[in-house]
Amino acid sequence: MIVELTVNGEPRVATVPGSVSLLTVLRDELALPGSKNACEQGECGSCSVLFDGELVCACLVMAADCDGSDVVTVEGIGTDEHLHPVQQAMLDAGAVQCGFCTPGFVVAAARLIETNPTPDAGDIREALAGNVCRCTGYGAILRALESLAKGAS
Amino acid sequence: MEIVRPTTLDDALAARDALPGADLLAGGTDLMVEVNFHHREPEHVIALRRVSEIAGWEGRRIGAGVTWTRMEKGPLRALAQLSRTVGSPQIRNAGTIGGNIGTASPAGDGLPYLAALDAEIEVASAGRGVRRLRWDEFLVGVKQTALRPDEIIIAAILPEVMPVAEEFAKVGVRNAMVISTVSACVMRMPDSTWRIALGSVAPTVIRARRAEELLGTTAAPRGSLLAEVADAVAAEVRPITDHRATEAYRRHASGVLVRRLVGRCAA
Amino acid sequence: MTGTTVKVPVRGGVGESTMRPDGIPKVTGNFAFASDLYADGMLWGATRRSPVAHGRIRRVDIGAALAMPGVVAVLTQADTAGRRTFGLEEADQPVLAAGAVRFWGEPIAVVAAHDPDTARRAAAAIGVDIEELPPLSDPEVAVEQGSVVRHIRIRRGEPDASGAVVVEGYYEVGQQDQAPLGTEAGLAIPDGEGGVDLWAVSQWLHADHEQIHLSLGVAPDQVRCHPVGVGGAFGSREDMSMHIHLCMLALRTGRPVKMVYDRAESFTGHVHRHPARMWYRHEANEDGALVKVEAKIILDGGAYASTTSAVIANAAYFAVGPYRVDNVSVDGYGARTNNPPAGAMRGFGAVQACFGHESQMDRLAARLEMDPLELRRRNALGSGDPNATTGQIIEGSLPTVRVIDELAAIPVPDPADPADVRNRPGGTGLTTDPGDIRRGIGYALSIKNLAFSEAFDDSCEASVILTPMGAEVRTAACEVGQGLAMVCQQIARTALGLNHVAVVFTDTSEIGSAGSTSASRQTQMTGGAVLKACEELRDRILTEHGGDDLTDDGVVRGGEVVATLAELCASGPIEHRVVFRHPETFSTDENGQGAPHADFAVAAHRAVVDVDPELGLVRVVRVDTAQDVGTALNPMSIRGQIEGGIMQGLGLAVMEELVLDEGRMLNANFTDYLLPTFADAPDVECRLVEEPGLWGPFGAKGVGEPPTISSTPAVVAAIRDATGLELIRAPVRPEHIVLP
Questions:
Q1: pLDDT in tens, C547-565
Q2: Does residue B31 sit within a domain?
Q3: Interface contact B252-C733, CB threshold 8 A
Q4: What is the β-pairing status of strands A70-72 and A2-7?
Q5: Among residues of chain B, what percentage have pLDDT more than 90?
Q6: Which of B5, B88, B176 lies nearest to residue A67, judging by beta carbons?
Q7: Residue in A57, A112, A116 to test binding to B, most B beta-carbons within 10 Å
Q8: pTM value surpassing 0.95
């Protein structure tokens, strides 16, 4: 099946095999491997993307239903040359270890900062509770976003 | 696989009529887990998120396509409370009340609310039109509903008489993104009667009728009555032991939760 | 060319919190993990696994699978050209099972096909006829029947010694999974000459390489194991998973083959932490001085040996904890059962023992009506003391008293505002009113060996190459996310005096083994090798050119540059390669006595919990720690290790457990194997206690494991403090609190 959608601002056409998820199509058909596959049941947030502006798990979006949709992946948040403030804050705070959860956190945190530029610790914990990190214990991620919030307030 | 993406209810119902075995796709948070795990391989899918007639929420009528995120910010206290506990922000942005009803999991977070309210489920088909079933007519077993193969869930219909107090709580082993081991919704109605519904403690969401009777019209139950109510709930639920919790724990926690929620709802 | 120069200290050397060299690609999504690899014309692999925990294989029929369109190869044990088994310590695990299956999920056959879906369907289409046999699933029964990988017996001092106060206890630790976010993944590419190149998740490329070429039946130089992005490890990549399978499929098909486990397969495809049953008896004098400790520890090693012999050794050698005791008796058994194999996980045997000995120390403190930290301080093991179990004299630093005192000095802040439900047990589940909450505080100490032990030849090779641009460090060590590239860069900058240092992870054909990324060892071992290589290279160059310093400008003599880096490298880059070894370790005698360990580290944790006793819900409010780190090479990175390690310890304390039913996993997914989320994360304050170690670079000690070891018993102790319950098992589940 052919699906036309917008990904990171670019019109894209994807060949969608069967009932696969948007995550599979992003990674395998559209050469955007930044979104990670770690659980395929919406329990880890590693595949977080913005889907028509809302934060969702790409593994739970049926790709065949994406015709006409607007998708933003981690590749559309910032680039190596122009990091998003959330990306820079995470680097500065030491919030990256193995990095597998990081793209999902970047997308979710960027969305959080966009909707609530000055979240407190409780807001950050709740907003990012759908993104599991196994390496950092979340402390450095919290400090990264608190520093951003402090800068914004 | 073929997918139909209707934008009107008529088109959706026509598609359902033409493809009675088709899988219904709303937020995808249940269906896609089954697809990803290869437990289900849909041949035909009817995608419902573009159907405007089920996307709205007006007063007592909550369209099947209304997401948890919307309900979390909505005016109904217990519905907002329970919506906040569903999955994660990502899940709440995608998942819908209609999906929760259709999946009919014993742990469905939205179901105790509908059960406590004696809400109705509105369904429709191209051939037979619209019908409404009370929640306990619709939810008939573990992941079993009375939905016919040509029908689609349209809305949850709340009653005209709404509670004066309503509270929800959910027990899970961690503080976010967790399937409930017990959930409960308690309401105090304008006629001073009580409503108590529980999830994850029986094949379907259930009402604790014996405990409701014990409470009668006591506006502010205390002491021994509260303890009796907790005991009655613990006796009334029909939980199982699995890897999430033991039967004994679920019974105990059911009683405790209801006792606390009754306390919070008391006048 | 010559010129004057002014000495400027290097930036990003040891002691600074520098940036990870892999940080930017990781935040932008451009970092390539094994699961992101792609090769033209590649096939996809899938694995057929045993549906039973124990059985006799009557027949494996690959006909239907092979006949499926898109299927290129289906391999069984008969296709193993070389050694049909593998294993880190004992090659007892079949590459592919034949004859018998010994655990649920054991690989029986592998498939290569044009796409992942076809490969999966083909694997499912393989006919497997198994006569199911009763599984041996109880490790105690296994020990009774003599089904034991290793029994370690420790006898020290007087067996008849006795103290005025006796406490006994039985304890259990459930099975924890490493649950790295990245599942197992790899890509094998045949070289067209009978050899193969492999990029697959690993903690130890050379150990993979050795086992792979033996099983493929090819010469060692025909297999090259390459470094690749690893999405976390925590022990789960020390044993191989798909590695031999991928190489077999690539050689058979002549095409690149990729495989990625899904989460459920990941749970069955790697080893887990050993579940434990432990019996303890402590005797002490009225003043709290320990007189005698007796313990029996059974770890369930599952169906195959993996690293069980080393894990049970650790559990036994650290059965007492960081305390002085003269009379010790320990029997440790690594049982062999039909449960999924257990092997390495962060803390490696010390985790289980620590839950036992720290639970005992709290019982003893309660019996003596003594402050729990005071009891620990009174018995603290220090440098120069003999380890209570082996009698090994602790030669390096061991600041046990300091970690206790530093921990005690961290203030306990007021409880977070209980008006915010997110700060309560149950959180937004709204289960708990402020009046339902009981607060508890608990403490625990741990000791862990660093690097490999028991006479293992723990060698580590590294190379440094001087180029006109600066220096390049080359190693086959595995960066699994912990930050090794960063620390090697820091060490090289400081040791060479050069700012421009690149770290290149290379394959097994180019350089010797760096040893495993485990046992908290790489900062000390690869870091030690890098330091040695850099120091020797610098000395070599300075001697050759009569210089007295090396800078970015070149060799300096008396403030004058006498040779630039470009001039030094006129006839090519200058390489210096070294092999580094830590001080020799030894096997213990028949009584478990001797000097099996190279170095030690201690840590202390204090947990503060809020418990809703009536519902059994726990919120871990904070976990504070003081940790012996030798010298802090990168404080921010150490903090990351400490916070992450504490979180895994917290997980084991209150939620993480693989649930088995007669060898079958009931919760091999992220809905039911619960990892702590952001909403469960406590605040952490950490104090780094710096007393330089004996032989690590600049006095550094490994820091990865200690945070995971004593955080679990500290959290459980805090729950005991809040509830008054005994709580003999980790993880503590709500029903253990409500219905003890």
A1: 999 999 999 999 999 999 9
A2: no
A3: no
A4: parallel
A5: 99
A6: B5
A7: A57
A8: yes
Chains that touch B (3 or more CB pairs under 8 A): A, C
Is B198 exposed, middle or buried, given 0-12, 13-18 or 19+ CB atoms closer than 10 A?
buried
Q: Which residues does chain A have within 8 Å of residue B36's beta carbon, measured at their own beta carbons?
A: 21, 40-41, 59
Q: What is the pLDDT of residue A11?
A: 98
Range of the structural domain that residue B250 is part of: 165-265
Q: What is the pLDDT of residues B53-111, one digit of tens each?
A: 999 999 999 999 999 999 999 999 999 999 999 999 999 999 999 999 999 999 999 99
Between A55, A62, A108, which is nearest B28 by CB?
A62
* CATH classification of the domain holding B205: 3.30.390.50
Query: How many CB atoms sit inside 10 A of residue C172's CB?
Result: 15
- C58 inside 8 A of chain A by CB: no
Q: In this complex, is the C-beta atom of A38 within 8 Å of any C-beta atom belonging to chain C?
A: yes
First CA to last CA across chain B, in angstroms? 55
B169–C733: do the CB atoms touch at under 8 Å? no
Read out DSSP for B49-112? Answer: TT-GGGT-EETTEEETT-BHHHHHTSS-HHHHHHHHTSS-HHHHHH-BHHHHHHH--TT-TTHH
Q: Give per-residue burial for C354-388: e unless 16+ CB within 10 Å, then b.
A: bbbbbbbbbbbbeebebebbebbbbbbbeeebbbb
Cβ contact A55:A37 at 8 Å: no
> Which of B5, B29, B36 minimises the CB distance to A65?
B5
Q: Strand, coil or helix: what is B134?
A: strand
Q: Which residue of B has its CA nearest to C678?
A: B176
Q: List domains and CATH numbers for chain A.
A: 2-76 (3.10.20.30), 85-152 (1.10.150.120)
Any idea what DSSP says for residue C462?
E
Domain total of chain B: 1
Integer Cα distance of C238 and C477 in angstroms: 12
C321-352 residue pLDDT tens: 999 999 999 999 999 999 999 999 999 999 99
Positive or negative: CA dihedral C723, C724, C725, C728: positive
The partner residues of C324 in beta bridges, in order of sequence, read none
Domains in chain C, ordered, with CATH? 3-31+459-581 (3.30.365.10), 34-134+178-269 (3.90.1170.50), 276-453+589-738 (3.30.365.10)
- Choose among B36, B42, B90: nearest Cβ to A55: B90
Question: Residue A18: closest CA among chain B residues belongs to which residue?
Answer: B1
Residue B249 forms part of a structural domain: yes
> Which of B32, B50, B51 is the mutation pick for testing A, counting most A CBs within 10 A?
B32
Is the CB of residue C428 less than 8 Å away from at least one CB of chain B? Answer: yes
Give the gap in angstroms from C-alpha C427 to the nearest C-alpha of chain B: 5
Query: How does pLDDT run across C486-531, given as a tens digit for each residue?
Result: 999 999 999 999 999 999 999 999 999 999 999 999 999 999 999 9
Spatial CB neighbours of C206, under 8 Å, sequence gap ≥ 6: C225, C476, C508, C512, C513, C514, C515
Q: Examine the pLDDT at C2 and tell me if it is beyond 60.
A: no
Residues 79-118 on A with a CB inside 8 Å of C are 79-80, 83, 87, 90-94, 96-103, 106
Asked if the structure places residue B141 within a domain, the reply is no
C-chain residues near A134 (CB < 8 A): 179-181, 232, 234, 644, 648, 675
State whether the Cα torsion C621-C627-C631-C637 is positive or negative: negative
Is residue B85 in some structural domain? no
A46 touches chain C (CB under 8 A): yes
Q: Which two tokens stand for residue C141?
A: 């029964």
Cβ-defined contact of C644 to A87 (cutoff 8 Å):
no
Question: C436 to chain B: which residues are within 8 Å by CB?
Answer: 260
Orientation angle between helical segments C205-216 and C243-253, nearest 10 degrees: 50
pLDDT higher than 80, residue B225:
yes
